Each structure stands twice: as structure tokens, then as C-alpha cells.
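Weekly modeling sync, notes
Attendees: S.R. (lead), two postdocs, one rotation student

Agenda item 3: backlog of single-chain predictions. S.R. asked that every request posted to the team notebook include the full sequence so nobody has to chase files. The rotation student volunteered to paste the first one in as an example of the format we agreed on. Action items at the bottom.

Example entry:
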Amino acid sequence: MNIRRWARFALHPGGGQRPTASNVNFVAGETASNAAVVAVGDGVDLFHNSSGTSHVIVDRSGYFIAAAS
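Predicted structure, as returned to the notebook:
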């Protein structure tokens, strides 16, 4: 990672506002992992890295089905 001290990473649906909370926080040189449930937006999910450059691997799997009425 090319960051000076620490950074935070947020994933959010396209078409929506960036959340005020992050999905994962990390410091320079750290390998960090986390899991998050994020709604699908207008087809483009957005990533926001607060500082520098990072390498990110994202596995996208699973879905929710609305309850039968």
C-alpha cells in the first residue's frame, strides 16, 4: 500500500451517498480483511479509499430474496 499512516476504505452502492463509516480501517503495510453487506445500486458499486493507493480484492457473492407474501 502506498499510504503514509492510516486509511479507511468504504464500499457503497452507486447512485447513493458515500457512508460516514468505513468498511475497513488499516495502517501502512498492514494486510486487513473484513466482510460487509452492501446493497446493489444502479449497477456500479463505488469504492472510496481515504488515502493513497491500495490493492483490493473483492468477492461478490450471495443475495437476499424478499419474503413471500
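Discussion: group reviewed the output briefly. Strands lie at 6-12, 24-27, 46-49.
Action items: rotation student to repeat for the remaining queue; S.R. to check formatting next week.
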